[in-house]
Amino acid sequence: MVIKILGTGCPKCKKLEGNAREALKQIGASAEVEKVSDLNDILRYGVMITPGLVIDEVVKVSGTVPSVDQIRRFIKDSS
Q1: pLDDT at 78
Q2: How far apart are CA 63 and CA 70, in angstroms?
Q3: For residue 8, what are the β-bridge partners?
Q4: For this structure, is 13 an active site residue?
Q5: How many Cα atoms are found within 13 Å in the side-chain-facing hemisphere of 48?
Q6: What's the CA gap between 25 and 49, in Å, rounded?
Q7: Is 3 a catalytic residue?
Q8: Tell me: the pLDDT tens digits for 2-27?
Q9: Which residues contact 25 (CB under 8 A, 6 or more apart)?
Q10: Of 5, 21, 48, 59, which sits 20 to 30 A from 72 (CA to CA)?
Q11: Confidence of residue 79 (pLDDT cuts 50, 70, 90)
């Protein structure tokens, strides 16, 4: 599984990355967590407002920071 955090490094982007790592830890899953900060790469996902969360190349959310619980559900649904 590959989880991508789309954003330029703003506080919300950092919070999303922390929430994603915590969700993985809580469910005992392993995944590669990548940060995507290049604006052209972010736009290729159709994300116009950051942060964005992509799991296995599927955009799960953009423009908001989902909770750890929400991210756990996204991960479980993607497995």
Answers
A1: 87
A2: 15
A3: none
A4: yes
A5: 0
A6: 27
A7: no
A8: 999 999 989 999 999 999 999 999 99
A9: none
A10: 48
A11: confident
**CA-only gyration radius of the chain, Å:** 11
Position 69 confidence tier, pLDDT thresholds 50, 70, 90: very high
Active-site option among 1, 2, 10, 58: 10
What are the sequence ranges of the domains in the chain?
Answer: 2-78
Encoding tokens for residue 10? 């703003």
Sheet of strand 2-6: strand arrangement? 32-36, 2-6, 52-55, 58-62
Angle at 13 between CA 15 and CA 54, to 5 degrees: 105
Task: Give the confidence band of 60 by pLDDT, cuts at 50, 70, 90.
Answer: very high
26-48 confidence digits (pLDDT tens): 999 999 999 999 999 999 999 99
**Of 3, 13, 36, 71, catalytic:** 13
Tracing tokens 């590959």 back to the chain, one arrives at 2
Report residue 14 as tokens. Answer: 């950092």
